[in-house]
Write a structure and sequence with these properties.
Blueprint lengths: L1 E7 L7 E2 L2 E2 L2 H13 L3 E6 L8 H15 L10 E6 L1 H10 L18 E7 L7 H6 L2 H19 L5 H15 L7 H12 L3 H16 L2 H5 L2 H10 L7 E8 L5 H6 L4 H17 L15 H11 L21 E7 L15 H5 L19 H24 L1
Parallel strand pairs: 1-4, 1-5, 5-6, 6-7, 7-8
Antiparallel strand pairs: 2-3
Length: 396
């Protein structure tokens, strides 16, 4: 059986940029598991504007799948959509039989082969962080943070002075202390100057695209996702599965633990600001299922050993907002850990045994202690769902 898998990035995410593949770890690990089951795998990463409206992103996803999935009939293999963060909403919108995204009927024929939709830390019920990013200072902060993400993952540690300025600017923006907006702009420029000409141009185009279209930020506000949830349906016969994680609440102890390395301490400070903003759920729009998901709540209590408060989040999305369909994995981890961007403590010899696998890079230090074992269990859960959904579809 040939599985066709499509990965869609989300907030802070990208496809392939500055010589770095955002989904490299997840793509490789998932393909290995499906091949180990005796199947073939064809993987694709969709290049979508990071902050464009969900509908525009979904249309691009639809057309990309249509142009690369072979014949529309089921004999050409099951299709799986995997979205991280906002990318999960793209997948749900594309799959929904009630959605009108503006695609031609021929571009939607492949949905007959859709076997599964996997959402990884997706804000199904919105996130308070999006409300911050819709402000003028928040828009600039998002661009600076996104540039930092690309550079930290693809090149390594950016200049300490630039990151320090970004931390200070974020703190002022969050507390509305009359931030001079050019501070964030200068931080972004400082990050770009550290790149060579080719990569600087690529990242600048990526950041400019966010400036040109940031419709997703308005749509990801909890108030707006209230309407999204009311209008989108699950496609019959398709498996919907999700993963959810949270990081420990930042504390003086976590900052002190990283103080031996200034870069880590600054990263912890950025995470603390993001975590604090994300934890501010409005009781009227609590970023949680409108009707309590008993199975999801039971899973969270079993995994974490206690009922979770409304503040629990991964630094970007409240944990309950991440649950849709069958919750197949939950645990400690931040928004980037779960797709393979975590601190790797594996001995060099064991890491080398993976061959050409890229190094795990963790620029967002959250204190989650996410590791290879957790990543492996997450990928196992996703693979099991993909395989079972494909077998079920083939039997019908």
């Amino acid at each position: 059986m040939l599985h066709r898998i499509y990965f869609s990035p989300g907030m802070f995410g990208f496809g392939r940029l500055a010589s770095y593949d955002y989904f490299a770890h997840l793509e490789r690990a998932l393909a290995e598991r499906l091949r180990a089951a005796g199947d073939q795998v064809d993987t694709h990463v969709v290049d979508v504007s990071p902050t464009a409206s969900i509908r525009r992103r979904a249309l691009k996803l639809t057309e990309f799948v249509a142009s690369t999935c072979g014949n529309a009939n089921r004999g050409d293999g099951p299709i799986h959509l995997i979205g991280h963060s906002t990318g999960g909403l793209d997948a749900r919108l594309v799959a929904s039989p009630s959605a009108a995204i503006g695609a031609e009927a021929a571009a939607l024929a492949w949905r007959e082969r859709l076997a599964s939709v996997t959402t990884i830390n997706t804000p199904h019920f919105g996130t308070p962080l999006a409300s911050f990013f819709t402000t003028v200072s928040g828009q600039r902060a998002l661009r600076a943070l996104s540039a930092l993400t690309v550079i930290a993952l693809s090149v390594g540690s950016p200049p300490l002075a630039v990151v320090s300025a970004l931390v200070a600017a974020l703190g002022r923006a969050d507390h509305a202390l009359g931030l001079e907006l050019n501070i964030l702009d200068r931080a972004t420029e400082g990050l770009l100057r550290g790149l060579d000409e080719v990569r600087s141009r690529e990242v600048r185009e990526y950041v400019d695209a966010m400036k040109d279209d940031d419709g997703a930020m308005v749509q990801l506000m909890p108030e707006a996702m209230d309407l999204f949830a009311a209008g989108i349906e699950n496609r019959p016969g398709v498996l919907y599965q999700s993963t959810a994680s949270m990081a420990p609440a930042p504390s003086p102890r976590t900052i002190l633990r990283a103080i031996a390395r200034p870069q880590n301490a600054l990263s912890e400070a950025i995470f603390a600001i993001l975590y604090g903003i994300t934890s501010r759920c409005d009781p009227r729009y609590p970023c949680a299922p409108f009707l309590a998901d008993g199975d999801g709540e039971t899973t969270l209590v079993r995994i974490f050993g206690r009922a979770l408060g409304t503040r629990a989040n991964d630094g970007v999305v409240p944990i309950r907002s991440q649950i849709w369909g069958k919750l197949v994995w939950a645990g400690y981890g931040d928004h980037l850990d779960v797709i393979g961007h975590f601190r790797d403590t594996t001995p060099a010899a064991a890491a080398k045994a993976e061959g050409a696998a890229p190094a795990h890079v963790d620029w967002l230090h959250s204190g989650s202690d996410f590791d290879r074992a957790r990543f492996a269990s997450l990928v196992d859960a996703i693979a099991e769902g993909a395989l079972s959904s494909a077998r079920h579809q083939a039997g019908n």
